[in-house]
Amino acid sequence: MDYQEYIKAHYLTNWQNDPDICYWDKGPANDLPFDFRILVFAPNTNRKMWTYATCCMSQQRDTIGIELHLFSSKKDDTLIELLTVIAHYHRTGHFLDLGHTVNFGKPWQDDSNCNYGLISLPYIDGPNLENMIYSDKLIKFYWLIPITFTEMTFKKLHGIEALEEKLEEKSFNYLDSKRLSVV
Questions:
Q1: pLDDT tens, 61-99?
Q2: Nearest to 162, CA basis, from 127, 122, 118
């Protein structure tokens, strides 16, 4: 099984449905690895949300590779573009990792207050999704949580654990694009 198929199979094992395989062909997407794609998982009986996930954002030569996913209450092709842009930044700019934040450059969806993303552990899916071994290499699968400017600033001042505690304390709705800041 090639690398792309192995990643796809890892997602399938955890999410139990076949994705649509998408490619954003605008802008500098050709700078990305040839096998890079976005997988779009429709809601099913086990998961009531749309899931957008990178596939081959990591590469076999990476010391530790990462893949990202985010959730949506609706089908939204702009999330294919968003993850492609983030993957491009990761591959051609600065490697991203757990605890990092990224500037979306626009609202996450519609007129959302969430213009940033927090790279977090995949709390909803747990360690079965988080870790994959391929040819003795560890690949990490992280959750990209859309956050507000205020939350991003709070994280920079107080750390990721403090922000995650606030998110949990307020029982934030990670599918609500119109949610208010928890800080």
A1: 898 899 999 999 999 999 999 999 999 999 998 999 999
A2: 118
What whole-number distance in Å separates Cα of residue 53 and Cα of residue 131? Answer: 15
The helix-helix angle for 160-169 and 149-158 (nearest 10°) equals 130
Check: CB of residue 170 under 8 Å from CB of residue 150: no
Q: What sign does the CA torsion over 70, 18, 123, 160 have? A: negative
Q: What one-letter code names the amino acid at 90? A: H
CA 117 to chain centre: 8
Cα separations in angstroms, 31 against 16, 17, 28, 133, 161: 31, 29, 6, 26, 34
pTM of the model: 0.96
pLDDT at residue 28 tops 90: no
Q: Is 7 helix (H, G, I), strand (E, B) or coil?
A: helix
How many whole angstroms separate alpha carbon 122 and alpha carbon 141? Answer: 7
